[in-house]
Amino acid sequence: MALFALQPMAFGSWLAMIPHVKESLGLSKSELAVALLGMPLALIPTLQLASRMVARFGPRKTFALMLPLQAGVVVLPFVATGLPTLFLALAVLGALIAFLEVALNTYAGRLEKAAGLIIMSRCHGFWALGVGVGSFVATQLFGLGAVWAVFLTSAFAGVLGAWAGRSLPRLAGEVEAAGATPRKLRDMPRALFLIALFVLAISIAEGAMSDWAAVYLAERRGGNTEDAGIAVTFFAGCLALGRFVGDYLKLKLGARGAARLTVGLALLGVASLTLLNPIVFTFIGYALIGLGVSLGFPLGVSQAAALDDTHEAQNIATMAMIAMTGFLIGPPVIGFIAEGISLRVGLMALFPGLILSFCLTRIFPTRDLG
User: How far, in Å, CA of 303 to CA of 96, rounded?
Assistant: First the structure.
């Protein structure tokens, strides 16, 4: 759980600085949308390669190598000189994050099965907490300069995370997974793709909030960008809260009931954010969307890992590859709508996907069998 909190602190520090980078490079909303494509465009195809590397070398070695590297790579966007170099910098960061995402979720999935626990939601709660802490710390260190704020936050998390990763115990299934032959897409179970589609719709909303929450708040407050990163902190804090109580909800309501409750909250959140004018409803919207999208990915990871005992990394990577296209689709679509009409209307585009996700909650069992 410490690793789930430490890994995304670098990412959170970057999110808090998006308005600063946008202003310093003089990017329009549509240009920023194009630049933000760099991370998911590199992350998504790298997931399959990452699944093979994590299966072969294990999550622990992946943490020890990739977490310190992340601390250096995350500062690349701040030396960008324009749209092309910002796009490339985010692509490098996205490719590196793919290895850490697969390693984290593979280890947690194996731990759930090995120990007979339900912990995935809490693990992702710590991930969301890490995003919030990273954005908060970087915002507080902004006086040192954006580059130093992000680097110091990321370096601390990288060094401590590398030590924590090497301290993890070996789990059953790691040796078998290292020798397993990867499957082709046509050989994977149909249930895996339904799980991925459910998470895809939720990822679109989560990605939209991650990339546009600070920009939207700055716009609502007359263009002030200095402390707009607090929007990311607020959203991520509510995301974390939802994940910390998610395992309890899963035990009490079953996976299906927990999914329906949270997706319903997300729909209410988008309505509050876009249909009501007072600024207080903007923060209420961030809170409800944070709670509402909190369980989508953890539920998907647990279901994907439970499908078999030797292909957890590939199952999770395939599910994530499809689901995380939400981070590819959502932010730029919203950006282009915002450029043509308004950011408020762009965020309304989240409604159809969340309605689809609500309909797909039937893929989960009514009661957890673990």
Answer: 25
- Between CA 286 and CA 144 the distance in angstroms is 28
- Three-state secondary-structure class, residue 118: coil
CA angle 149/329/262 to nearest 5° reads 80
174-178's contacts with Cβ under 8 Å and 24+ in sequence apart are 174/58, 174/110, 176/309, 176/310, 177/55, 177/310, 177/311, 177/312, 177/313, 178/55, 178/56, 178/57, 178/58
Residue-by-residue DSSP string for 298-344:
HHHHHHHHTT-SS-HHHHHHHHHHHHTHHHHHHHHHHHHHHHHT-HH
How far, in Å, CA of 246 to CA of 128, rounded? Answer: 13
* Rounded distance between C-alpha atoms, residue 292 and residue 286, angstroms: 10
- Distance in angstroms (rounded) separating the CA atoms of residues 198 and 120: 17
213, 235 contact by CB (below 8 A): yes
Residue 81, judged by CB atoms within 10 A of its CB (0-12, 13-18, 19+), counts as exposed
Question: Residue 308: which residues within 8 A CB-CB, separation 6 or more?
Answer: 315
- Per-residue pLDDT tens digits of the chain, which is 370 residues long: 889 999 999 888 888 888 888 888 888 877 887 888 888 888 888 888 888 888 778 888 888 888 988 888 998 988 888 889 999 999 999 999 989 988 888 888 888 777 777 888 888 888 878 888 888 888 888 878 888 888 888 898 888 988 888 888 877 655 544 445 556 667 677 788 888 889 998 988 888 887 788 888 777 776 666 566 677 778 878 888 898 999 899 888 888 999 999 999 999 999 998 888 888 888 888 899 999 998 998 898 888 877 776 666 777 888 888 887 777 777 778 888 888 888 888 888 889 989 999 999 988 877 644 4
CA distance 25 to 45: 28
Contacts for 179 with CB less than 8 Å, ≥ 6 apart: none
Question: Is residue 41 within 8 Å of residue 98, measured between CB atoms?
Answer: no
Residue 142, Cβ neighbours under 10 Å: how many? 17
Distance between CA 162 and CA 158 in Å, rounded?
6
Instruction: Give the SS3 label for residue 117.
Output: coil
